[in-house]
Amino acid sequence: MIFRFLILMTFFGFTHPSYANPPKDKVEDKKIQLPEASKPAKATKKIEEKKNTKDLTLNEVSSYAESINSTAKAMTINFQEELYRDARKVTLFKTGYAYFIKPDMFRWEVSPAKQNNAKEVWIFDGKDLFQHNTKEKYATRYSSKLGKNQQLRELVDIIINFKALLSKYRFDGAKKEDELIHVKLTPKQKSEIVFLEITLQTTEKNKKIFMQGLTLHFEDKNRTHFKFEPPQESKEDKNRLSLGKDIKITNAFE
Question: CA 75, CA 72: separation in Å to the nearest integer?
Answer without folding.
Answer: 6
